[in-house]
Specification:
207 residues; alpha/beta; putative 2-phosphosulfolactate phosphatase; six-stranded mixed beta sheet; four-stranded mixed beta sheet; 9 helices; globular
Length: 207
């Protein structure tokens, strides 16, 4: 059953703050040139044999055989030792949605300000992905983006608190990923990932 909530009609904007959107944004902001969302562990492992770094989780927990979980902080730690160009990602919720779309933008709280600037004037469909732990954090960012595109501002501290105290954040804390949540609400990146032809690039770089 679909959990996501869609606001508006137009180019899809996929928002999964905790954590798929944040991992994708972090990857493209830190040297990864392309991110490929996949729907199965088998697809990811096949790409691993083609020199892709692979990230993945099920219900928040890292998948066996993967280089990292769906974790921006794990990714940054790994990038201190390696310089991969390509990342494949498999998550519980967002990647199935991304793989079903011909094109889409990817937004998190990490790149919210850039998204407001770069998407201004476009007809958009804002998709708060959510999970079995709810979709408050994704819906808040979707509303903040919608307001920003219409010349209004939502208090940034309030947005961060909404993410920090969401049920999804509490779940991540329980399974050992509170560092990810803290990183996501305290970091910003000037990138805007765009999915085209099954691959995500940073659209601010002219792809």
């Amino acid at each position: 059953m679909e959990r996501f909530l869609k606001l508006g009609e137009g180019a899809p904007v996929v928002i999964d703050v905790l954590r798929a959107s944040s991992t994708i944004v972090t990857a493209l902001a830190n040297g990864i040139k392309e991110v490929v969302p996949v729907t199965s562990k088998k697809e990811a492992l096949k790409l691993q044999r083609q020199d892709f770094l692979i990230a993945g989780e099920q219900d928040g927990v890292k998948l066996d055989g993967f280089d990292l979980g769906n974790s921006p902080t794990e990714l940054l730690n790994l990038l201190e030792k390696q310089c991969p160009q390509k990342l494949a990602i498999k998550t519980t919720n967002a990647t199935d949605l991304l793989c079903s779309l011909p094109e889409a933008f990817v937004v998190s709280i990490l790149n919210l300000e850039t998204a407001k600037k770069k998407l201004h004037g476009k007809k958009l469909s804002l998709i708060a992905v959510g999970s079995r732990h709810g979709l408050v954090e994704d819906l808040i960012v979707a509303v903040a983006l919608h307001m920003g595109l219409n010349g209004l501002d939502m208090n940034s501290q309030w947005i961060s608190k909404a993410v920090l105290f969401s049920e999804a954040a509490k779940h991540l804390g329980k399974i050992g990923y509170s560092e990810d949540v803290e990183f996501i609400v305290n970091t910003s990146y000037d990138v805007l990932p765009k999915l085209e032809n099954g691959t995500i690039h940073d659209s601010t770089c002219g792809y």
